[in-house]
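Researcher: Sequence recovery benchmark, item below. Answer with residues only.
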């Protein structure tokens, strides 16, 4: 029986398929063990086809990272703008990180536990993402507190680091604690810290 040739896909569709396969391969094997040969094999394409879309494994990894960062930025920004109430904003922002790692098909390892965190280009991109989100959280904190811009940004960066780290740790052993409980522990901690700087006009009795 003669095998049928692989269906030719439009370029954008093929690129999306290759990224999806690469995401699963990187998540399973890690960056260094996941070769372009293995990714091409898993995708059912030849290596030349894979290299037409991504000149190197680092280019492929970088494209996946950008995609995941874009998804997380959208998720966190939606949380930041979900309410004018500071308590709800803090809780929703922390929840955004936990929802991100729990999302089906998420490649959160690329962001939270990257094998290439010491690569200069990747490290710079991750730092830019964290600084951007931290500053945006800081801008919200500054609106509700008496903290100056630098102090509010410092708080925002701290909340970002705590939420990211906690969500990543929970995902390693989700059977130990429900996502809801793990998330609650973090947002309560974050809220108690920010609550102490709120002005009289803010709702400081949201959590007892």
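Model:
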């Amino acid at each position: 029986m003669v095998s049928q040739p692989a269906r030719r896909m439009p370029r954008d569709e093929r690129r999306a398929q290759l990224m999806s396969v690469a995401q699963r391969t990187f998540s399973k094997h890690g960056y260094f063990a996941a070769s372009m040969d293995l990714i091409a094999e898993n995708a059912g394409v030849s290596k030349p086809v894979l290299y037409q879309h991504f000149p190197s494994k680092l280019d492929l990894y970088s494209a996946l990272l950008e995609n995941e960062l874009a998804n997380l930025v959208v998720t966190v920004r939606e949380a930041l703008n979900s309410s004018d109430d500071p308590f709800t904003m803090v809780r929703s922002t922390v929840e955004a990180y936990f929802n991100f790692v729990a999302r089906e098909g998420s490649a959160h390892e690329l962001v939270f536990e990257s094998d290439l965190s010491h690569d200069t280009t990747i490290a710079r991109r991750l730092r830019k993402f964290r600084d951007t989100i931290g500053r945006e959280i800081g801008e919200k904190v500054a609106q509700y507190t008496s903290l100056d811009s630098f102090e509010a940004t410092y708080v925002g960066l701290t909340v970002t680091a705590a939420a990211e780290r906690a969500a990543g740790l929970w995902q390693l052993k989700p059977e130990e604690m429900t996502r809801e409980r793990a998330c609650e522990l973090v947002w309560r901690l974050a809220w108690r810290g920010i609550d102490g700087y709120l002005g009289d006009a803010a709702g400081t009795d949201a959590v007892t």
